[in-house]
């Protein structure tokens, strides 16, 4: 049986494995574990995992934005489905869970995605998400 549930600290290894399989940058495991623990405790964030008979094979992190003027939204900040389990409806189910949360809050759904992830852009367009704008992120490392 498959289900989507709130992540718990014991999901750490599976979340990292799915993330690394998709090329998310590797970081120190204690930093990742600390970040995941913070997301799990957060009132503004949801971290869900998709679990089936083999265990956790995907995850999605969504964040409830702070209302600025009249604009607020639920933003999908990250999602990964292990490559062995892609194209089986898992990503769609996770996005649907985020949409449900947004609807419950009376908010719209937003997704930010790296500009080089063209397959991911296509996936989100197939979920009914429309391009609003392109932007650059510029950093100065000091």
- Would you identify the regions where 5 or more consecutive residues have pLDDT less than 50? none
Task: Provide the helix percentage.
Answer: 25-40%
Shape: globular
Report Rg. Answer: 15 Å
CATH class: Alpha Beta
**CATH-derived architecture:** 3-Layer(aba) Sandwich
Enumerate the strands of the largest sheet in spatial order, edge to edge or round the barrel: 1-2-3-4-5
Reading the helices and strands in chain order gives EHHEEEHEH
CATH 4th-level superfamily: Gcn5-related N-acetyltransferase (GNAT)
Count of distinct structural domains:
1
What is the residue-mean pLDDT, rounded to a whole number? 87
Give the class from helix and strand content and strand pairing: alpha+beta
Strand content: 15-25%
- Tell me the number of strands: 5
Q: What distance separates the N and C termini?
A: 49 Å
Discrete helix count: 4
**How would you characterize the largest beta sheet?**
5 strands, mixed
Q: Would you spell out the secondary-structure blueprint of this structure?
A:
Blueprint: E1 3-6, H1 12-21, H2 29-41, E2 45-52, E3 55-64, E4 73-81, H3 90-105, E5 108-111, H4 118-126
Write up this protein:
This protein has helices spanning 12-21, 29-41, 90-105, 118-126; strands at residues 3-6, 45-52, 55-64, 73-81, 108-111. It is of the alpha+beta class. It has one domain (3-126): 3-Layer(aba) Sandwich (Aminopeptidase). The chain has a 5-stranded mixed beta sheet with strand order 1-2-3-4-5, sandwiched between helices. The longest helix is centred in the last third of the chain and has 16 residues, at 90-105.
């Amino acid at each position: 049986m498959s289900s989507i549930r709130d992540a718990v600290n014991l999901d750490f290894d599976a979340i990292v494995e799915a993330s690394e399989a998709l090329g998310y940058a590797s970081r120190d495991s204690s930093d990742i574990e600390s970040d995941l623990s913070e997301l799990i405790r957060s009132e503004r964030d949801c971290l869900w995992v998709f679990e089936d008979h083999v265990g956790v094979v995907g995850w999605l992190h969504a964040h409830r934005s702070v209302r600025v003027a009249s604009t607020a939204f639920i933003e999908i900040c990250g999602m990964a489905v292990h490559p062995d389990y892609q194209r089986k409806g898992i990503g769609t189910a996770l996005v649907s869970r985020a949409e449900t949360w947004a609807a419950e809050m009376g908010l719209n759904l937003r997704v930010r995605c790296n500009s080089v992830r063209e397959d991911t852009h296509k996936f989100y367009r197939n979920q009914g998400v429309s391009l609003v704008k392109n932007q650059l992120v510029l950093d100065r490392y000091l």
